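Write out the bound-state structure for iron/sulfur cluster.
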Amino acid sequence: MKNKLKIGVYGISGCAGCLLSILFEDCFKQLIKLVEIKAFPLIKENNYGGDFDYVFIEGTVCFDEDIIVLNELRKRAKYIVALGSCACTGGVPSIKNFLDEEKTMKLVYPVYNHLKSTPPTPMDMHIKVDYYLPQCPPNKEEIIEFIKCITTGREFKPYREPVCYECRRKGNLCLLTENKICLGPITNGGCDALCPTNSVTCYGCRGPCKDANIKAYLDMLKEMGYTNKNMHDKMNTFAGLQFKEQEGNKSKWLEK
Ligand code: SF4
Ligand code: SF4
Ligand code: SF4
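---
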């Protein structure tokens, strides 16, 4: 029998929600049938110290120690898979890049001088990432599809249309018509429009669509009566660094 692919599943600074997504029964059953999980420190006491074919990593880079772990895993893996929003876009921790650091730290820690954190950043700002499985937490069907692709040699094709495509296909009422800020038009879909289907606006957890016209979208929201701050608070929730990069500060309104 052909040797199974050697897999590692690791986390840096994160909440373990992405790692738990892998442990959903249907996902985990597929995984252990198709690949060999050589290391998964969340659930295994004894973990392999050699090289891997694929390493899945959850979390945001928040500390120097995270960078050390990433560099070590990069050396040991043929392919690195960023698992979840924190790994792919910086996720919720990356909000800190847009806030006053001192005030933010004091919200959580009365004394924090002993804590040496680095600006929260996605892992591809530190190491080469080969594949991205975004979303908070990641979509288990997408994880299963990815595993099937890597074990059969099929090309993995990330979903590239905005959330609105899936949302309109499902016949949902558009939340923009209720005057709510929904990031669906500028966010990569692939989540089956999970939030708007449950009457919750999209917060952009799968990151911006590559060809999103962010200026036109922001101008539309301005006409709806929203301020620059309202808009950016929403865009900064999961993927502020990427949305900012994509905006390119082309809109004059953004300079206000
Ligand atoms: S992406 Fe979401 S579930 Fe995953 S580590 Fe970050 S906060 Fe937790
Ligand atoms: S609710 Fe949001 S995702 Fe759905 S169509 Fe409207 S803007 Fe797009
Ligand atoms: S609708 Fe938006 S926030 Fe909700 S899961 Fe999809 S991409 Fe993430």
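---
Strands lie at 5-11, 35-39, 52-58, 61-63, 77-83, 117-121, 131-133.
The longest strand covers residues 5-11.
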